[in-house]
Amino acid sequence: MKALIIGCGVGGPATAMALHRVGIEAEIFEAYGSAADGVGWFLNIATNGLNALRVLDAHRKVMAAGVPTPRMVMWSGTGKRLGEVPNGLPLDDGMVSHTILRSDLHAILRDEATARGIPIAYGKRLVAFEDTGSEVVARFEDGTEATGDILVAADGVHSRTRALLDPQAPAPHYVGLYNFGGMVKDPDFESEPGVYHMVFGKKAFFGHVGSLTGETWWFANLPRALGDVPPDWRPVLVDAFEGDANFSAELLRRNPPGMALPIYDLPPLRTWHGGRVVLTGDAAHATSPSSGQGASLAIEDAVVLARCLRDAPGHEAAFARFEKERRPRVERVVAYSRRISNTKAAGPLTRVVRDLVMPMFLKKAAGDESHAWMYRHRVSL
Ligand SMILES: Cc1cc2nc3c(=O)[nH]c(=O)nc-3n(C[C@H](O)[C@H](O)[C@H](O)COP(=O)(O)OP(=O)(O)OC[C@H]3O[C@@H](n4cnc5c(N)ncnc54)[C@H](O)[C@@H]3O)c2cc1C
Description:
With 381 residues, the chain is an alpha/beta fold. It has a domain at 2-67 and 100-172 and 266-344: FAD/NAD(P)-binding domain (3-Layer(bba) Sandwich), CATH 3.50.50. 37% of the residues lie in helices and 25% in strands. α1 packs parallel to α9 and α6 packs antiparallel against α7. The model has no long low-confidence stretch (mean pLDDT 94). It binds flavin-adenine dinucleotide (FAD).
């Protein structure tokens, strides 16, 4: 069997490696001239995602390039410490969540796939596919095509494959937040390595964590109507954070905020597959970044899809089994993440209530295992 994999972000190379493990040939086709590095700046890879990478024997380099980030401290915009919670639950062997630059994660996964003999073709933007019944043909913007037995979409939240598979599929849902991020090395903005500091500010949300090389990796979530893009984001962001009791406004004043990224998640789809084509990762179930789970879910998908293709009597049975196993879990994460995103876009009244209630909530959450379903989930081949 040969699989055409569309997209070389997080899930694409992971899927190729998982398929390779079960003896399925794979080739990856990426729209950009090189992998789309940089978008989103840095990522939290939760323990469930690291565990899925471990199944593929691809976790070591990711962990070595990342920062162990087992803790999260929450603050209000007034400077009140609301509480501390683990950043995901550690696994039995002590493995904890790690934070890694997105460009490093992409490079590691891409190089690992290449080292295993998996070809990656760049500059191949899928524009159409044809399922002939006996094979599937992928057509690319540059006029070339490729033929395989199955086509696996790993082309992200704005998936072209999804729209081609089901033109009625819902569009991604804007969660009401623009995301900004960056890295600074400046003694005025130092941040503790290994600890996320998350600030529910008066008007917007700010997070930062220290890298092992003395940088501060930061992000901001600004509640804003979609498309309401000012000529310059800097004064807007400085205004949003001015008055919060931390360095966010000053950091933004001195460092241009860079690209603004509207944040989406995906309403549940009617179906994840059709004929020889299957959707995975964000193409099937994008979650907002608030849960820090999207990449981990894409890697879990890779492992589960490979197992289903190995064990089921044919590709259609495999895709159906894959969807059945994955859908309840990922939809639960998407809903969980959306709830967190909503608290970041809180109005003044909700904010007061949130700051009052959150310490009690965090105290309870610090010691309980109620998120074990998310972080201790284990996929296997
Ligand atoms: C700001 C931000 C912060 C985030 N933070 C986290 C986090 O901390 N932890 C976490 O787990 N997740 C996080 N996520 C989510 C995470 O990035 C995604 O869930 C994850 O990358 C999904 O992997 P994927 O392979 O499905 O899609 P992607 O990684 O988006 O990869 C899709 C790939 O497909 C390519 N492509 C698109 N269209 C085509 C086409 N037509 N033909 C060929 N190729 C195509 C793209 O160029 C891209 O390389 C964050 C997302 C954002 C936006």
